[in-house]
Amino acid sequence: MKAAVIGAGSWGTALAQVLGGKGVQAMLWARDAAVADGINRHRRNPRYLSAATLSPNVGCTTSVEQALSGAQAVVLVTPSRYMRDTAEMVAPFLPDDVPVVICSKGVEAGSGLLLTQVASEVVGNADRIAVLSGPTHAEEVVEGQPSATVIAGTGEATVLFFRDLFATERFRTYASDDPVGVELCGAFKNVIAIAVGISYGMGYGDNTAALLITRGLAEMGRMVAACGGNALTCMGLAGAGDMVVTCMSRHSRNRRFGQDYIAHGKTMEDFEADTHMVVEGAVACKTLEALSAAHGVELPLTDAVRDIVWNGGDLRAMARELFARPLKSEFYGM
Q: Of the candidates 28, 98, 16, 41, which has an alpha carbon nearest to the alpha carbon of residue 67?
């Protein structure tokens, strides 16, 4: 079995390690020749998760054609903002019957399309496309620490294929027929993690973090239901599970961005220059605006994060505004 893993960042490297540990020939694709050379020569990614020694079954190339040649599965792990470009890049080398799993989290800017919808528009055959999501920090997955994900799609055979492909004794995989819910959960949790990080950076405590997490889950549930997903998905691995780990762990780049950067007057450009990582929540708080408008769903926390990150909104004024909102039923709009 050969799997092409398109994207050699932290998450792509960790997923390639999971596959390689099972005996799958996991061929990473990287833009940077130094990354490919480091993996092939020294069994280490010199830029991401560089302390991890990778399986001999993990290789790397800068050629998309070489990565996809003979692959029986394709794993797309590039940032959400590049998903359409990535799908267009692989399409000429992708046979019609090869299954594809999206492992990025977000919504396409402008269109409001989910990433599985973007991929199916470009490469066709929506039933061969799935999404993998869940509470999984790459730093722990690459070490083999017990973790779990959910794999969702409209094609049952595709979902079960990827469930079995990724499953190990320490990396559990669950199946779902709700890709809408799973994808929206993955986008929302990054936004709320920024809010939680900001609150800690402002000196607030765990009570405030719990408030933001649970109200964030309520926002998530309203949007999932409005878009035709199952609100119960928000209580599972892709929803509550990923929300908790992303909001509460210092591994979380979105929380660190809120806590160490936004709360101290720094910018997204500062974070990306320091870490070479994309802040998915900063992108998602903008892209979710299109869905909010299209479905008439109220997203006060998402709106607040967007105003703070992109418009320089005042942190304490925004906190006062959120607390001044009218009191409502806990699960209104669902």
A: 28
Q: Span 78-105, mean pLDDT?
A: 95
CA angle, 236 then 237 then 242, to 5°: 120
- Residues 153-157 have a mean pLDDT of 97
Q: Give me the phi and psi of 175, to 5 degrees please.
A: -100, 150
Backbone φ and ψ for 26, nearest 5 degrees, come out as -100, 110
328 is catalytic: no
Q: What pTM does this model have?
A: 0.92
Q: What is the edge-to-edge ordering of all strands in the sheet holding 147-153? A: 58-61, 25-29, 2-6, 73-76, 100-102, 129-133, 147-153, 171-176
- Across all residues in the chain, what is the average pLDDT? 95
Q: Which of 2, 189, 286, 328 is catalytic?
A: 189
> Is the four-CA dihedral 237, 243, 246, 247 of positive or negative sign?
negative
Helix (H, G, I), strand (E, B) or coil at 23: coil
Q: Write out 165-206 in H/E/C secondary structure.
A: HHCCCCEEEEEECCHHHHHHHHHHHHHHHHHHHHHHHCCCCH
Judge whether residue 189 has pLDDT over 80.
yes
Q: Do residues 86 and 94 touch, judged by C-beta distance below 8 A? A: no
pLDDT(330) > 90: no
Specify the residue for token string 């692989």: 90
Hey, is 207 helix, strand or coil? helix
Q: Which of 196, 195, 147, 139 is nearest to 309 (CA)?
A: 195
Per the listing, tokens 């909104």 go with: 313
> What's the pLDDT at 168?
97
How far from chain centre, in Å, is Cα 118?
Answer: 15
Q: What confidence score (pLDDT) does residue 328 get?
A: 87
Distance CA 62, CA 33 (A): 6
Instruction: Name the band, by pLDDT with cuts 50, 70 and 90, for residue 276.
Output: confident
